[in-house]
Design brief:
Length: 140
């Protein structure tokens, strides 16, 4: 069981880990050992997640979400399989933590009298500046 928040945790068997060879630096080790990890988590059908958290998680996942509702996270920053696995799980947990936070509902407010006054004074000043532009009059 992987704890996400105090009230939310996901089961180990809900996460599918696949290991493959990583590219990049690492010497001969790169060609022999499968150190990179691909984590797959079915956000749409997970029994551990409440429906609202699941919906927010799918929106947050962005391009990491497949058409079937599976989140795919690839980790290959480190040279060891264990560190890459921990990195992928930590990234998934952080994503779920963000989805677990309920967004604050914006309440519409009216502008105050002072802010309306400031706005109108600024408009008046600006119009005066623009009105004073141009050629000087030949009253002399």
């Amino acid at each position: 069981m992987i704890p996400v928040t105090e009230t939310l945790s996901i089961e180990d068997d809900e996460i599918d880990l696949r290991f493959f060879r990583a590219g990049g630096p690492g010497g001969q080790n790169v060609n022999k050992v499968s150190t990179a990890v691909q984590l797959r988590f079915d956000a749409r059908r997970s029994p551990s997640l409440p429906n609202d958290v699941s919906i927010r998680l799918q929106k947050l996942a962005g391009k990491r979400l497949t058409l079937e509702g599976v989140i795919v996270i690839t980790a290959q920053r480190f040279r060891t399989q264990e560190r890459n696995r921990d990195d992928a799980i930590e990234r998934l947990v952080e994503l779920i933590r963000q989805a677990a936070e309920r967004p604050t509902i914006r309440r519409a407010t009216k502008p105050t009298l002072a802010s309306k006054t400031r706005r109108l004074e600024g408009k008046t000043k600006r119009s005066t500046v623009k009105a004073n532009r141009g050629r000087p009059s030949s009253d002399d």
